[in-house]
């Protein structure tokens, strides 16, 4: 999916919500554990209840890898379900990969070709030859970690090098890479005050913004400093939605939580 098609979906649905499918087998309703594939059944219920209110889903790959072959099978079934039932939805493999070129090429093939995700999150620490293989696919994107929402982000990302923060160097350098038009960036909602300067460097690229909700980020701050005329934002919420309830109607409650966020986003879009 191209950024233009994603933007069309955002305005159509009046939402830039991304739902994180971070499925912890220990937190899903216990009655699902008797199913042949409890992870997929949980995902399917969440997707069916929330798809009207979001434009993207983001499975965190670690939660599937932790369950071995069965986890990978659940991931494949989930992405195939999305492709078949809701092809208008944008999909993100939250894998945070990045390695030497030939290895990154295999990671890119896995997520962008074999599984057919629209995008994959990538770590930039090893530089351009670790990222460029992810940028070779038409209508596919690499989402580069820029300024993250975790506590340890300040260990490296905001450190000054020659008078400039490291994350700014990452942003500026990445713009020089081959096929850089296929880049999006991760910027945490808890770092909303940094968005104004980030937008001066990358004024049009989409930003994937985690940290709204459970991590304390505020939607209105993200929109104030990060939204463009074409929106340019995907705001992720995971635990606040998918673990809103452990009861048998967990999906219905998740849908209600997603709708609340969608309504807040519609209000922000009306300000454009």
Estimated helix fraction: 40-55%
End-to-end span in angstroms? Answer: 24 Å
**Class derived from helix and strand content:** alpha/beta
In the residues, how many domains can be counted?
1
CATH T-level topology: TIM Barrel
Q: What is the number of strand segments?
A: 10
CATH class: Alpha Beta
Count every helix, treating DSSP H or I runs of 4 or more residues as helices: 12
Strand order of the largest sheet: 1-2-3-4-5-8-9-10
Mean pLDDT: 95
Pfam family, one: OMPdecase
GO biological process, one term: 'de novo' UMP biosynthetic process
Organism: Salegentibacter agarivorans
EC number: 4.1.1.23
Write the layout of secondary structure elements.
Blueprint lengths: L2 H11 L3 E5 L16 H13 L5 E4 L1 H5 L2 H18 L4 E8 L3 H14 L4 E4 L5 H4 L9 E7 L5 H4 L3 E2 L2 E2 H9 L8 E5 L7 H7 L5 E3 L9 H8 L6 E5 L1 H4 L7 H20 L3
Parallel strand pairs: 1-2, 1-10, 2-3, 3-4, 4-5, 5-8, 8-9, 9-10
Antiparallel strand pairs: 6-7
Helix pairs in contact: 2-4, 2-12
């Amino acid at each position: 999916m191209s950024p233009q098609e994603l933007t069309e979906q955002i305005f159509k649905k009046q939402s830039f919500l991304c739902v994180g499918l971070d499925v912890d087998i220990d937190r899903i309703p216990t009655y699902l554990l008797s199913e042949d594939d409890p992870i997929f059944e949980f995902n399917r219920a969440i997707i069916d209840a929330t798809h009207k209110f979001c434009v993207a889903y983001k499975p965190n790959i670690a939660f599937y890898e932790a369950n071995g072959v069965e986890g990978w099978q659940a991931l494949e079934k989930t992405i195939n379900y999305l492709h078949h039932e809701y092809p208008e939805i944008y999909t993100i493999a939250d894998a945070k990969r990045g390695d030497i070129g030939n290895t990154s090429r295999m990671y890119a093939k896995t997520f962008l070709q074999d599984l057919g995700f629209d995008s994959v999150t990538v770590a930039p620490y090893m530089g351009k030859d670790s990222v460029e293989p992810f940028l070779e696919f038409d209508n596919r994107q690499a989402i580069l970690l820029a300024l993250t929402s975790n506590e340890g982000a300040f260990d490296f990302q905001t450190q000054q090098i020659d008078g400039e923060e490291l994350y700014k160097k990452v942003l500026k350098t990445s713009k020089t890479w081959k096929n850089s038009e296929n880049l999006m960036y991760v910027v945490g909602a808890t770092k909303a005050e940094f968005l104004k300067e980030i937008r001066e460097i990358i004024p049009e690229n989409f930003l994937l913004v985690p940290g709204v909700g459970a991590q304390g980020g505020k939607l209105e701050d993200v929109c104030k400093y990060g939204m463009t005329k074409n929106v340019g934002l995907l705001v992720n919420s995971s635990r606040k939605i998918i673990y809103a309830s452990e009861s048998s109607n967990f999906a219905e409650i998740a849908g209600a939580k997603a709708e609340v966020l969608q309504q807040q986003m519609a209000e922000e879009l009306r300000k454009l």
